[in-house]
Design goal:
alpha+beta, Glucose Permease (Domain IIA), binds zinc ion, 3 domains, 4-stranded antiparallel β-sheet
């Protein structure tokens, strides 16, 4: 009995001695590995995990929507010799940030009628801009369709947001342009005429006869100086752009619903057949080509192919 106790004591002392030797030589740490590759050692796992959460996962850096690891880091308890280096948490965090995370950034696009007009940092700013426009314009009747889209990217270089001030001005300017386009001077078969092609003196009315013409006048002549911009009266498609006998250089625009406008005697043509144009687009310059004695625009409105008196609608 006594000898058994003695033996147990010896075993216990021996065991404690070995344990003491281990602790003199080794220390417990956590080894951090990513995809099987050792990144380093840390002392305090809980502290480190908290820092990962704070600095990576829940980072409040500008534009960051969320951050995730490419490969989850793994932690394993290890004993290493006391003389080995343990990394400080910052080193390991930096390593993870640089090589093992995907950061997704978020920003907001404000679009008007499907065209991007501004990018801003926050939903708040985007909403404020949209509200301002809605207060300032009759968005429904002017067909101003405003939208806020949340955009995501993993490329921070792609984020180039406008200041609130600039974004606000950009959207307002665009709305103003559409307002001008959509405010009709006249409506023919649901086609809104919202811009006059040129401003000037009427030099010959529709239906007038003249010794220079074979038939009565099929359009309205507006005299103005050579080179004056000729604007399209309503949105449409260019169906002709070229030389056409007595019309000289002529541009024809199809506005749909059987409505066409013609612009004759141009000195220059800027549009091409097939171009989609909107009200106010400059398509040509005033000239005196074809059967003409001085610079003027010959403006025609045609409904289902037949000319009508433009002055029923404009001028
Ligand atoms: Zn004419």
């Amino acid at each position: 009995m006594r000898s058994l106790l003695k033996l147990l004591t010896i075993i216990l002392v021996g065991f404690l001695f070995i344990l003491a030797m281990i602790f003199i030589k080794y220390k417990p740490v956590y080894e951090v590995t990513v995809a099987g590759e050792k990144i380093g050692y840390i002392n305090n796992l809980n502290e480190f995990k908290n820092e990962v959460d704070e600095q990576i996962i829940n980072s409040k850096e500008e534009h960051v929507a969320y951050t995730s690891f490419v490969n989850e880091p793994k932690y394993e308890q290890k004993l290493i010799t006391r003389t080995s280096d343990v990394n400080n948490n910052e080193e390991i965090l930096d390593e993870l940030k640089q090589n093992n995370i995907v950061t997704t950034y978020k920003y907001y696009e404000v679009s008007l009628n499907d065209e991007t007009k501004a990018y801003v940092d926050t939903l708040d700013d985007a909403t404020k801009i949209v509200d301002e426009i809605k207060e300032q314009f009759d968005t429904e009747n002017l067909e101003l369709n405003l939208q806020i889209n949340e955009e995501y990217t993993q490329d921070i270089a792609k984020i180039n947001t406008d200041s609130f001030q600039n974004a606000s001005i950009a959207v307002e300017t665009a709305a103003e342009e559409i307002k001008e386009e959509n405010e009709a001077i006249a409506v023919i078969n649901n086609v809104k005429l919202s811009v006059l092609p040129v401003s000037g003196r009427i030099s010959s009315r529709y239906g007038e006869s003249s010794s220079r013409r074979r038939s009565t006048h099929t359009g309205l002549d507006i005299a103005c100086s050579m080179g004056t911009d000729i604007k399209v009266v309503s949105k449409g498609t260019i169906t002709f752009a070229g030389s056409a006998g007595s019309y000289g250089n002529l541009v024809k625009v199809d506005h749909g619903n059987g409505v066409e406008t013609w612009y004759g005697h141009c000195s220059k043509i800027y549009a091409n057949v097939g171009d989609e144009v909107k009200a106010g687009d400059v398509i040509a310059a005033v000239g005196s080509t074809g059967n003409s004695t001085g610079p003027h625009l010959h403006f025609e409105i045609r409904i289902n192919g037949a000319t009508v008196n433009p002055q029923k609608y404009v001028y």
